[in-house]
Amino acid sequence: MVTILYTKLTETFSERLFDRYLDELPLFLKEKISTYKSVASKYASLLGFLLLRKGLDDSILNEMYYDKFGKPHLRSNTTNFNISHSNEYVLCAFSDTYKIGIDIEEVRPIEVENFKHHLTQHEWETIIRDTNSSIAFLDYWTQKEAVIKADGRGLQIPLHTFEINNKHTKIDNSDWYIYHLNDFMPNQSAHLALNKKIAQDKIKIRFIDFER
Known about the structure:
5 helices
């Protein structure tokens, strides 16, 4: 089973709410949030940690640590999780069974030529043939990002070294399966990556409102 919790950052998420929730976090996470320059990024980072806490338990954030690749883990909990945010949406995916990665990007005009070196030749040709190259690119990009986040090495794996083909790819003889998540978030490209193939109905998605 895979669970995805998500929330939406709105204009009513005030500084008062931010300060209240921030005060509940461990010091090292407060310091991490403070490194973001924009207010929106600070808010989104906070909400990601709140989703993680909501999906597990209130004390779990004290057990977080980051490995040498920058991937977060929990010291005494074997749950795999991954957080992503883009503009107003924040997501956190959980699994007790599978390696997991998630990525989201707001759909917007992209100068796709600037990213050609991150793509295989087949991916590039598919993008430039599409009637909306920006959307086609973002769909590939979020799939690839979800995969390298699930693998755990992040951008240590060059994106052009593996190819997405029909929601599947292989890295170092390991298979990765990709699931489309766009439908419940308008104007977004979002994908989930797992190291096993599962039925779509095994992915449970729930909205969390932190503004009530």
